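2024-03-11 09:14:02 DEBUG pipeline.ingest accepted 1 chain
2024-03-11 09:14:02 DEBUG pipeline.ingest length=79
2024-03-11 09:14:03 DEBUG pipeline.predict start
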Amino acid sequence: MNQYVATFHTHLSALRTWRALGELGVTARLAPVPRALSSSCGTSVKYEAAAPHISAMDRDMEAVYLYLDKAFTLLYENA
C-alpha cells in the first residue's frame, strides 16, 4: 500500500473526496495540510491505497502527492 495526500481549494471538496474514498473502501482521514505543501483551504485528505484514485477526487482538488520516505512527490495537479 502507498500513502497519499490530496490537497484542495475548499474544505467542502476535501470532505466530498473523503466520503468518495470511503465508499470505495479506502481508509482515509481529513487532516491539516503538511507544512511542506501549500493549499488554499488548509485541509487535506490522507489515505492509503494501492493506487491514487484520482477519479474519486472532487473537482476542486488541488493536487495529489505520494508520501514515501518522508518526502512528497507530486503525482497529479489539477490545472
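2024-03-11 09:14:41 DEBUG pipeline.report The chain has one domain: 2-77.
2024-03-11 09:14:41 DEBUG pipeline.predict end
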